[in-house]
Amino acid sequence: MPNPIAYLAIIIWPILILVLIKRYGFQSGVLLGLLGAYMFLPAGFNVDLPGIPAFDKFSVTTMTLIGYMLINKKRFGYGELDGFLKVIFIGFVISPFLTALTNSERYYYLPGLTIYDGLSDTIGNYLYFIPFLIGFKYFRSYEHQQLLFKYFAIAAVIYALFALYEIRMSPSLHRSLYGFFPHSWQQQYRDGGFRAVVFMGHGLLVAFFLAVGVTVLATMKKTKTKFSRYGANGMLLTLVLVTLLLSKSLAALIFGIVALLAIYFAPNRLIHSGTVLIAAMFIAYPVLSSMKIFPHTALLEYANVVSSERAESLGYRFEHEEGLLNHANDKSLFGWGGWGRNRVRDEITGEDLSTTDGKWIITLGTSGWFGYLTQFMFIIAPIWLANKYHKTAKSKSYNEQFFLASHALIVALILVDQMPNASLNPLYWLLIGALLGRIYDLKNTTKKSEIILNTK
């Protein structure tokens, strides 16, 4: 049961965001607001009031930013998207409404969806996506890209210290401060020790946050970009990397190590090519799985070489994904909607038989291919465009070119993590939008330079 501190944290957070914006400026205030919400506000908790979206750690942050921007007449950035992405954005926002229109019938004991459900989820999609537009509009310069990396690097170091405490002492901070544990305790015990949960809700989310932190810190060290007076970049990178190693998440550890190796040994061109390959794999995976031609068996055999326990866990995941995918294909265009309608149930009792982990299968089941493609296209498009236009950055400094490649790699990691997990949140949407904004800025700068040269 949440204690009064949990309610108080949600209630006073908008005031703190406004103070941060006034004290440090809009960009820094936004970063501190989203990072602070994800890192320290209660997880798995919301204040639900009638007629408006529930207030949780992210929705209250986003609504505060929207209010601030409307009052101060700051634009959201939608008008600067090209025509194709504007259409995709509209499609993503209205996709829940289309889902509701095609799911008015009952599913076992679950009620059909109503127009109110569609409208409510449409508003939710809009709120969910606002940080992307803010990142796109207000974090497109190289200076703001550096600011984004610096803040994330500091956040990763701070969280590594909290995580080390919980790995040693057990994940107890959330319960101690907010009066409840946000997830299954059993899932946080692995290999004879604990995963750190801190205030993110699950150990896998913390591990992935640290993997992104490793990528950011390695970028800072490679480019010799100083961000802290309290330690050398290499020492802080080692701290976060060791914490990731102890976090007992194989997928996040692989992401972190692959990113580290890519940053230190791969040329920018190869990093960009790798991110495009990841994006292609993400789109292909559900298609190949539906056609029964993805090599699940071979992957299980490789996993068994590493660990029989890992192989068993992966096999369990594949088994449930197959059932969920078959169910999703029954409403392939717009999906089944929420309230658990996307889950496989016993034909006689209606009992829930599913385990859903990956964001991809959750999205495909609830929103169908229309919702799946319109949502993830906003992650794939920046990756594709970064690869297409990275040569434009050749006129820029080495550090600017490298930051672009590293940023694209981070976005690719966020995308691929949606296969085993569901880590996508407004903070990561800000990172994704900032990459798209950076690409637009490079394109516009190049066009202006060409105009000047042609007029001389």
Q: Which strand-content bin applies to the residues? A: under 5%
Largest sheet: 2 strands, antiparallel
Mean pLDDT: 90
* Parts with pLDDT < 50 across at least 5 consecutive residues: 450-454
Radius of gyration: 22 Å
Q: Give the CA-CA distance, first to last residue.
A: 70 Å
- E-strand count: 2
Tally of helical segments: 16
Helix content: 55-70%
Structural class: mainly alpha
As for the number of domains, it is 3
Name the helix and strand elements from N-terminus to C-terminus, one letter apiece: HHHHHHHEEHHHHHHHHH
Principal-axes geometry comes out as globular
Strand order of the largest sheet: 1-2
Describe the protein in words.
This protein is mainly alpha-helical and 456 residues long. It is built from 16 helices and two strands. It folds into three domains: 1-74, no CATH class; 85-138 and 269-456, no CATH class; 142-265, no CATH class. Helix 14 (359-389) packs parallel to helix 16. It is globular, with a radius of gyration of 22 Å.
Name some characteristics of this structure:
two-stranded antiparallel ribbon, 3 domains, 16 helices, about 450 residues, mainly alpha
The gist of it:
The chain has 456 residues and is mainly α. It is built from 16 helices and 2 strands. The protein has 3 domains: 74 residues, no CATH class; 242 residues, no CATH class; 124 residues, no CATH class.
